[in-house]
Each structure stands twice: as C-alpha cells, then as structure tokens.
C-alpha cells in the first residue's frame, strides 16, 4: 500500500514504525466529476485574477499579504515569516500518544480525515504493530495523540478496524458546534405510547443486514450517465423543473401505519416489483415537490 507519510507511533519507550495511507479517495470529499467555468460564447476557461479595486489593477503574488479582519475594513497584517515562526517542526516524524480512551466514547463528529496505519516491511518491525493492535482490540481502547503533517499540527485518534489500525485526524473541540439547542427542543416533546409502538414497528420492518458494497450515490451515477450521453449525441434542451409546492400536512399515526404496511409488502415483493415500486415513489415525490 502506497504511503504519503512515514514515521512512528511513540508512547513511553515504545516506538512502532508506521506509514500513513489515505483510507478514502479524493472524490469522497467532492464530486468525482469536476467542472470548470467557461465563457459560453467561445468555451474558453475563465481565469481568476487578483484584482485590487482601490488601485483598479491586477496585483502580482509578491504584492499579496495575509490579513485578519478584526472589524469591517480593518485588518491585522501577518507576514509569512511570523506564521513560519509558530508552525510546528515539520521534521518531527512521531505520532505522540498522550492517553488511551474507550473507543466508544469518541464521537465520530470529531473525525476529519481517515488514514490506514501501514506497518513497516520487516517482520520484526511488524511485531509491535500487531501487539498494539491486539491489545487495543481486547481492551476496547483507542489512542489519542498528535503529530505534524505537512508542517501543521494534527490531533489524532488511532483505533482498530478489523485486523488493521486506522488513524483519524480530529477536529478540535472549539470546531464542533454544540447540539444543546436541539436537545432542549426535543426534551419538550412528549411521545405517545401508541405512536412509539408504531415507530418501533417501522424500524423493525426496515431492519436488515448492512451491505457496505451497496452504498452508492445515485446523483454521481446519473451525472456520469448524463455526461456520457452528451458525448454520444447532441445536447438536449433543458427542461424547467415544476414549481416547488408546500408539503401537505399528514397524520403521523396514519403515516406510520402506511410505512409499516409498505415495508411488509416490499419484503414479500419480487425484485422486479420492488424496482417498479421505487420508480413509482420517485414519480410521486417529484409531483409533491
């Protein structure tokens, strides 16, 4: 597996050589089909220019400086040398483990980027990797630490994933919004026993085995098909979407009953029948906006 960073996990006197390999593709963070802005008349890519409205002219890279806006139109200037002075030492190649915590206590909302931790090539160097993996698997623990990647300090969580170790870079606590407003709003809602019983039936009727291979974006698939079609034939005129209509008010109990009944029918239906039902639901959704 190709690694993009090589160093070692370090805690106490233990040093475990590892490499980082991205666990997700770049397309996972953005559409896998990228577009460029063109001039409609000649289909020439448009260039973005650095333009100073005060001097009414384009400025070069050497004239650009970073500024932190403290008030509207007022900036604190920061030079590149000042930023370099407080950057973490990029030569550090250690993932410093600070503590071990129960893995279930780490909320996934803090996860930023995902990497596989790749063991070293030598058999002897792989032994401490395997030892740490087995110990974390048996104790249900994950490791919190920090390291330097591309000159920037990163908070990290190391956790077992099957028979491999993963490293997740983490958001800082101040970067995650509080959900207190939602919790307060939900705490004021009373649920009726009959509604809750029907809701449980909905969950149970739709329960099934997790098939990660089936996870796919329908938009991505349709976009690829659209682009391939445009390569083969002339562009068709665009259609105007129907106006958005306000969603009708529905009875909660009736909606739950219908959902349970529909789920039971889908379990009994053949694959062809399921496909027709899916197409019918999509058509109905378009009509209601």
Strand order of the largest sheet: 1-2-8-11-10-9-7
**What portion of the residues fall into strands of 2 or more residues?**
25-35%
Q: Rounded to an integer, what's the Rg over CA atoms?
A: 27 Å
Total DSSP helices: 7
Ends apart, CA distance between termini: 46 Å
Strand element count: 11
Instruction: Report the biggest beta sheet as strand number plus sense, adding barrel if it closes.
Output: 7 strands, mixed, barrel
Mean pLDDT: 82
Classify the helix fraction into a percent range: 25-40%
Contiguous uncertain segments of 5+ residues: none
Q: What series of H and E elements makes up the topology? A: EEEEEEHEEHEEEHHHHH
Coarse structural class: alpha+beta
> What would you call the shape?
extended
Describe the structure concisely:
The protein is α+β, with helices and mostly antiparallel strands and 289 residues long.
Written description of the protein model:
- This protein has 289 residues and is an alpha+beta fold.
- It is 33% helix and 26% strand.
- It contains 7 helices and 11 strands.
- It has helices at residues 80-86, 123-139, 180-187, 193-205, 218-232, 252-268, 271-287, and strands at residues 5-11, 14-22, 51-52, 57-58, 66-71, 74-78, 94-102, 111-119, 141-149, 152-161, 164-170.
- The strands form 3 sheets. The chain has a 7-stranded mixed beta barrel with strand order 1-2-8-11-10-9-7. The protein has a two-stranded antiparallel sheet with strand order 3-4.
- A hairpin with a 2-residue loop joins strand 1 (5-11) and strand 2 (14-22).
- Helix 4 runs parallel beside helix 6.
- The two termini are 46 Å apart.
- The model has no long low-confidence stretch (mean pLDDT 82).
